[in-house]
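Title: Prediction job returns without error message
Component: structure pipeline
Severity: low
Priority: P3
Assignee: unassigned

Description:
Job completed but the reporter wants confirmation the result is attached to the right record. Sequence as submitted:
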Amino acid sequence: MRYVKEQDVLPEDILKLIQEYVDGEYLYVPRKKGNQKSWGEKSGIKRTLQVRNQEIYQRYLNGITIPILAEEYYLSEKSIRRIISEQKRQCS
């Protein structure tokens, strides 16, 4: 999350009103309902991990063992098993 200067987004009268309540303090303004973004949506990491997990599952189906997958993807064997299990559920 990056900070935005209040004078760049708020009219002066609203800024003065806010200062009456939180003068000099940090204030978080949440998104409006319906405008929330899910984790990883903005950065694209969610999609990147989905593609990686599908790749891991396909390689597993093609005979690559869990220890080899764990080593190649720098993940624990437990994580690889979890990914395989999740991918199986999604495919059925």
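Comment from assignee: result matches the submitted record. The CA atoms of residues 28 and 81 lie 39 Å apart.
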